[in-house]
Amino acid sequence: MATSERASPRDRLLDAAARLSYRDGVSVGIEALCRAAGVSKRSMYQLFDSKDAMLAASLERGVPWYEARFTHPAPETATPRERILYVFERLEQASSDAGYHGCPYLAVLVELKDPEHPASKVAREVKERLAAVLRTEADRGGARDPDLLARQLLLVFDGAGARASAGVEQLADGLATATATALLDAAGVRGADPA
Length: 195
What we know:
Blueprint: H1 9-24, H2 30-37, H3 41-47, H4 51-69, H5 80-95, H6 104-112, H7 118-140, H8 146-165, H9 175-187
Helix pairs in contact: 1-2, 1-4, 4-7, 5-7, 5-8, 5-9, 6-7, 7-8, 8-9
């Protein structure tokens, strides 16, 4: 995200779209986005074909940060099990932030309901990449059925995040990580890479 007052109008719009759509939902109005960015509607439409295109670009720009957030800090030395559990530990940490509203990509998919919306396409790709990472790690860890385990883990990830964002669940007690651990144990994922 651009933090400088000298950020371009495009960057300010993308920052505003990311911040407001995460906090208020994707139905946030163009006027509110432009006001928060300090950019006129005319300028917005010169930069983006539509609000939908701006939202998709905002989500796309956030992908590297999102994916880095869940990548183990020592991926070369961590075991597949450690790399998977790190995802859930980071989810638990994130959920304790006052401004936590769940996974921004899942929220877009739930709110828009239109699989052809440009933002839905970006969000779906991000969720599919997370599933692929979990599947790869499950396979490396010797899971009996890596595809099934990846689906189960993603279900826990999305469900825990959604429940925490709704305020009906607290993740500080480690429940998401404990649930992922139980799934890893049941699937036969060991602490070390299989020889």
